Amino acid sequence: MNTSKLTSSDYFKGLSIVYYSLILGVLIFLLIALFINYTKNISKIDAVFSNAITIAFFVFLIVGLAGSHLFFSGKLKKINSLNKDLLIKTAEYRSSLIVRYAFIEGSAFFSIIGFLLTGSNTFIVFVGIPIIILLALRPSKERLINDLQLAATEKGKIYDPNAIISEILLRV
Q1: Cβ atoms within 10 Å, residue 103
Q2: What is the pTM of this model?
Q3: pLDDT tens, N- to C-terminus, the chain (172 residues)
Q4: What b/e string do you get for 11-43 counting C-beta neighbours within 10 Å, with b at 16 or more?
Q5: Which residue in 29, 133, 140, 145 is a FRET match for 22, CA 20 to 30 A apart?
């Protein structure tokens, strides 16, 4: 099993790339949906079905956001309850964070699909909520330290850009 060690600097660069890519993907899909909706004459569904879809998509939005929070909180409790090495904690934290972002991103994509189906601008608001939440959850050293409840020596490693703080499995 080959692994590659990551410095603090590399770890946060990688997290930032994933984070901004997810946000950019949602925004690009939203722009495409807006373009399609306002330039093409797409037949809209009837009002009753539109209302039903709006309610279903709103419920999906809430479930996605709540699922994101519940999953991440549960995973943090598990990570923090085990006395593991910093390399393992940060690797598990990274994967948990990506899944958290995916839940939120899924809610946004689902809302964009609702917009394409109905043409209702309500779904633009449904897209805005997950984007705002994603923007508030930007990965940072301080957030990682607080979430993982790190000791002073581990905090020092996080702030040292050249310290090895994580590892990734390489597939050959």
Answers
A1: 19
A2: 0.89
A3: 688 899 999 999 999 999 999 999 999 999 999 999 888 766 667 777 888 888 998 899 999 999 999 999 999 999 999 878 999 999 999 999 999 999 999 999 999 998 988 888 889 999 999 999 999 999 999 999 999 999 999 999 999 999 999 988 887 7
A4: bbeebeebbeebbeebeebbeebeeebeeeeee
A5: 145
